[in-house]
Design goal:
By secondary structure, the chain is an alpha+beta fold. It contains one helix and three strands; from the N terminus they run βαββ. A three-stranded mixed sheet has the order 1-2-3.
Length: 75
């Protein structure tokens, strides 16, 4: 994620918004080195916690209970 100073944001805002639209980049706006805002493309949700942040992004197909490999030796 790229950072830009708050003092330079007004002059570059159109360029930054076009970059977000074209490339999906995100930017952090800083004031005195502290992040005060973030610009992200629409629909990009930021996870507040790591627990469950990928919920709904995977699909399980098939049997998830039986083992993939048999550990018993065949004779």
């Amino acid at each position: 994620m790229k950072k830009i100073k708050l003092s330079g944001f007004p002059a570059q805002s159109l360029k930054l918004i076009e970059s977000i639209q074209a490339n999906g980049e995100s930017f952090q706006i800083t004031k005195d080195g502290i992040v005060v805002a973030e610009l992200t493309p629409p629909g990009v949700a930021r996870a507040d916690t790591l627990v469950g942040f990928m919920r709904g992004s995977m699909v399980i197909k098939g049997d998830v209970i039986s083992p993939v490999l048999s550990l018993a030796k065949k004779r």
